[in-house]
Amino acid sequence: MAQQIPAAAPAEPKPTANSLRNPNLPTDPKLLRQTIRPAPSPARLRELYSTPDPQTLPSVSSLYSGNQANNSTTVGTPSPNPNNVLLVVPTANASKTDLFVSYLHATKPAHITCLTHRQIPAESGVGEQPYDGAGPRGALNRAVHAVRALLADESHRAAVVGTGVGTLLLGVIENFIAREPVDGTGIKDAEGVKLVPVDYGFIVLCRVSLLDGTWTWEVGISRGTTLPREYWQAAEKFGFEDGEARTYGKVTVGELLQANIGLDKADWNKPLAGVSRYELLEEALRNMKVPWPEVATGTRDASTAPAARATE
Fold first, then answer.
1. What CATH number is given to the structural domain containing 127?
2. 3-state DSSP helix/strand/coil % of the chain, to nearest 5
3. Torsion angle of alpha carbons 134, 136, 138, 144, nearest 10°?
4. pTM score of the predicted model
5. What is the pLDDT of residues 244-273, one digit of tens each?
6. Is residue 165 in a domain?
7. How many CA atoms lie within 13 A of 92 on its CB side?
8. Angle at which helices 94-107 and 277-286 pack, to 10 degrees?
9. Residue 173 backbone dihedrals phi, psi, to 5 degrees
10. Structural domain range at position 133
């Protein structure tokens, strides 16, 4: 089922470091050892997300509305080439960006004539600490919001049109906590069932054609890392931006681990579970199909492109 992607709302003010310190939380990492869990099955993964409603996707045809796709009408402005790809990563996180840049350059097909990248930070709209289905939703939100930000920024638009980019490739990672029932219960959210918090990374690769307006989605998910129960419960006590739905958390577990133990809030996985978050994400990314543009047999007039649509 497709979903609508609302415009990004400004994030709420973050708590101060002092307010995150809690003398009641355990601080010995040796007592907080965690385990790695398998990635959810393909069937379970499909339950976690739905691609955006095609009618809500921003139209990209305006980028080249003044140019003919086969013969540029502006002197010095190249025609859009579908094999000229711009990777857009909607985050300021250099480590996540490097994952996409390295993997795409390593797997780039011969017909891709140019591959560049640009960071365009975009809001997820699902709080600082997403839970359950909010994680995948936040990743899809970031992808759409990044394209909206690109279209609204003259410098981004000029970089695309000025170099003849014909394809955007969006790379998004959203880590989230799944509240999973204890193995063997087969029950979710039932009163009295003990839940286990597990950190997963949801990955989106989306191709946006600037010639015909199509959006093609590929998704993946990493193996998970269990979290210290005390820290998860403490994070939830800071509240949720979506009220009783309790999926848009205001404080991340990583922030609490950093404030109380000094662990890296973005990669507490390594000291507690022995595997870096970025190793898990890279592993998942390498298992994904990159939606590269197909070998072009011709070009089309971008000014006659249809409204944006999505395919899976």
1. 3.90.950
2. 35, 25, 45
3. -140
4. 0.86
5. 999 999 999 999 999 999 999 999 999 999
6. yes
7. 3
8. 30
9. -125, 130
10. 35-223+275-292
